[in-house]
Amino acid sequence: xxxxxxxxxxxxxxxxxxxxxxxxxxxxxxxxxxxxxxxxxxxxxxxxxxxxxxxxxxxxxxxxxxxxxxxxxxxxxxxxxxxxxxxxxxxxxxxxxxxxxxxxxxxxxxxxxxxxxxxxxxxxxxxxxxxxxxxxxxxxxxxxxxxxxxxxxxxxxxxxxxxxxxxxxxxxxxxxxxxxxxxxxxxxxxxxxxxxxxxxxxxxxxxxxxxxxxxxxxxxxxxxxxxxxxxxxxxxxxxxxxxxxxxxxxxxxxxxxxxxxxxxxxxxxxxxxxxxxxxxxxxxxxxxxxxxxxxxxxxxxxxxxxxxxxxxxxxxxxxxxxxxxxxxxxxxxxxxxxxxxxxxxxxxxxxxxxxxxxxxxxxxxxxxxxxxxxxxxxxxxxxxxxxxxxxxxxxxxxxxxxxxxxxxxxxxxxxxxxxxxxxxxxxxxxxxxxxxxxxxxxxxxxxxxxxxxxxxxxxxxxxxxxxxxxxxxxxxxxxxxxxxxxxxxxxxxxxxxxxxxxxxxxxxxxxxxxxxxxxxxxxxxxxxxxxxxxxxxxxxxxxxxxxxxxxxxxxxxxxxxxxxxxxxxxxxxxxxxxxxxxxxxxxxxxxxxxxxxxxxxxxxxxxxxxxxxxxxxxxxxxxxxxxxxxxxxxxxxxxxxxxxxxxxxxxxxxxxxxxxxxxxxxxxxxxxxxxxxxxxxxxxxxxxxxxxxxxxxxxxxxxxxxxxxxxxxxxxxxxxxxxxxxxxxxxxxxxxxxxxxxxxxxxxxxxxxxxxxxxxxxxxxxxxxxxxxxxxxxxxxxxxxxxxxxxxxxxxxxxxxxxxxxxxxxxxxxxxxxxxxxxxxxxxxxxxxxxxxxxxxxxxxxxxxxxxxxxxxxxxxxxxxxxxxxxxxxxxxxxxxxxxxxxxxxxxxxxxxxxxxxxxxxxxxxxxxxxxxxxxxxxxxxxxxxxxxxxxxxxxxxxxxxxxxxxxxxxxxxxxxxxxxxxxxxxxxxxxxxxxxxxxxxxxxx
Length: 990
Description:
Number of strands: 19
Number of helices: 40
Strand order of the largest sheet: 8-7-16-19-18
Helix content: 55-70%
Structural class: alpha+beta
Number of domains: 4
Distance between the termini: 65 Å
């Protein structure tokens, strides 16, 4: 059989295997993090967080039709985009390996003999399967994120340029270059990671066009490829819209033309200029010029998917992040300006003092007849003595500074040097944030706990606590993928240095070079290994080529070539087999639903027509999915506090959304727009103000922009809050008539709510919350969750009463600030009857750390309710609640966490001593084992260590209180022993 046919058939077999594995393990609903958002915005073509992924959304919308009207299946079908994209990337990886293998063996499709054909197929199969079952690749393949589709574009363009290299007919080969350019343009509408492959592609072009490789040729190729990246990343993506914005300003503000006319004229000029240039190059026979212009045109055609953002934003969809409905806000959206900048080539150390703030470029917004300047960007100036080239340790956030000092081993007063700066880059950014992930994929992974290390065969053989040994995220590949990859790397380097330089460039650019560009802070909310999937993809090319190397070795002492091929294949087959066996249990998401169930439980905690404030991504994106896709509790308005500091988001709260009415703000757009004196309202003590100030009066002064509140700043002025305490009068009779006060708590209604301002003052979100509280008059229920409670700079805790997984704001004061304030009737009904707990009792379902955290929140809610019931004297109901929690979320499915110290206390209180002691011994043993392991092995896991210390300390106190002195002493002694050891090794564990 001819090689082309075998190659094509086997490629599709590889695709089928990857597609089947990913389909079997794909999540059936919306995962945590960005997946809920991407599914929701795909389903209704809305506007996600910057810089968006419009092509992904368009394809997602098409896939959503396969749900056939069943909204509960929409997430599954949009998840299938990643399944198929990732499977196609494996197909192109297979063909890439066989192409590179042919170059390695010096054969073509026609000249390869039978043995060479089959060793090439074996190499492609092993490399492709290793990539299929690798940790990071598999993770992205089974959820609705952009990385699976981004991997497809990366795999396709590499394969396409390698195919181009084989075509001698220039007219035919140039079509492949234009196709590659089009795919690069399309990839912009998914993720920009594809652009870092351009230098590797440029070297394939250079090696084909120039038979003699020179130093200047290499430098020139790198320079040209760098220019291409800059043209796309700077000149096209934000550059063209920025120029269009300049046209718009000129034609509207200077010539008085209608809005949009400058943009239209610019687009017409661009199209005309390209068309003329292409015609000119073609008519004059300028082949290179024509190819470049056509490639540029097709990049722009691919990039045109971004028109979706402008079009949909103008229809004001429910999710419309940054509201990029005009060219000015669109440029800001593309530049991700809401996230700020990370210094790359020059910037400050983390201890640098801010010395000045300069007025930067103006910020425009459409007025009645022209664009108006509403603000100026601020340029921060730092002490020049504390700035440096190539800044790595730059963030001034307190938790970041603590980590910088720990990683660099600096004392509290020590000043970081440039050497410390580089040490942080090598040790943390490259070591912890790249090489650790690399070793996860090709050597092994310690566990799924945040910051877990990689696993060597020696580490895998050492004794570890059962809680770590049984962690499904613990994967041990015996370093086999790593070893086979290095064999392939060395073999390609020796036999085909040109192709090796292409692959290693791809490996570095999508790995270490990316870490340098991203310049990550020392603390991330989650592991970021998926970012480097392109680098891991490149390494699996070497795993495939390692099969050819093994064959070459075996052929030296096995005379029968087919036997040598079989031996090389069978030995190499252990690599994907062990990766599949180790990774299946922690990549199978097929029975996991709690991301959406936990979101529904937030919404179910709220009364009808509620306002629910949320904090982070996992608090919010699954809620958006639940409302915008499944239509669950669309009466409730979800307010994301991190966005509530922006004028565009506050304005969206003034619109009707589903059944949710607009917010009754008293502050108008001029009071909260960007650049107003209320962007941050500082607390400035006023000696004329004694005690609390009336909240409604204060809001009125803000509306008037009253001079009494003003303080001058370097570039303008800002408003202040002159007292730490804001007071809101409560109409008791009106509140009682509303029927919102829990039965038996009528005497807890206050005459005035006293709200304390925390920190330096009020952010815009805090001011708008205060305005909402003052104007709402309790008409709509207002709720906060744990994250939002911690995110605001006003203290509402005395007036928050728990009704589930959320806290309702009511004009009643907690009579016992040291105890939880609970509406037991509503909370009991919510937890026992209205909440969702699908598959939480299934020990075969895998829950990673994100899911376990939300399970902990639910267990804590059950404990809170049980404790409140005990305090009310209702022990029978408390018993029902505790045992319901144990039934719904058993240890066999989700191991006991540190909330179970409280559960033990409650079990003692309701007379369940036997169950209490059983659980206490289980969690104390696990805590002791984990602490011993971490301390003995000098493993710094700050949060895990704190949790386990807390368990032992609490259990010692609890058991002593209930007369279990012997066991209490055991736990207390264990706590003291570990605490003393940690104190002695403070530099390591601080």
